[in-house]
Amino acid sequence: MLGKEQENKGLGVDETGDDGDCLGRVDLEGSKGISKSMAKNETRELLAIQVLARMMDSSKGRDKVLKCIQYTLKTYLYLMSLFVRVRPLSPWFRANRKRMAIAVSGLSLTRKCLLLLTPLHPLSDLLSPAPISARTLLLHLVDLAGAVADDVFCLSKLGVLARGKGEVGGRWADRIWFLTTLIGLYKLHTQTIPSLPPLSKPVSVTACADRLLSPQDIANQREEERMWEKEWGDARWTGRKLVADLCFVSYDVLGLDFPLVGEPMQCVAGLVSGFISATKLYNQHWDASLGK
User: pTM score, two decimals?
Assistant: First the structure.
């Protein structure tokens, strides 16, 4: 009897040991799953850094990022100007305010320099032997005039051209920007949005896709829905960006003089436009990195 009890106890120990081994294997599998998840997150973070680096390789990407920084600092300066009316700033904040004002001015000039010689793009389109319509020709001419005006203003800031010529170039650059923004809004609402799929998705097909369609059809359906959401999202954000640009430039072009409204409106409009442009450009580089 004692031998059997000891044998049973031995079996019990062995079974417990087996259970322990099983538990150990489950823990290892769980840790592997966590490791895979962490590796996936690390890969995604690494890809995000690589996409941002690739975005910063282009002048357009640097311009958008610097625009976000510029109008963030400009908004900060505006808030400081409100705060100083209530309470005097400390010496550190006064010195910081001066540095930020210099930084905003420097960032503005840097962005102008990054976009120098952009008239080459519309000029190459105009000199192309490919036939173009009268409307396209007119748009290229408008783009060329705006780019030349921007370059004149930038060269004036650098001291290459006279200050008076720079002021004239700046005024014309704003007017052409105002015109191209209106054209962009018109094209968005008369050409781009009407060409998109309707807003109402076929809910019945989406809801019953898992039961009625094959796996390949389900994947295609989901890809179509993803593209549908992406196209409509791009159109909405493009419209918001154009509205922000219109609010910003119309204040200068129309000669409005509302100090209490003008500065905060331009700060917010510039910040919104900058972040939307930077986000859209980042998403384009992200999709290109994923091979979509």
Answer: 0.75
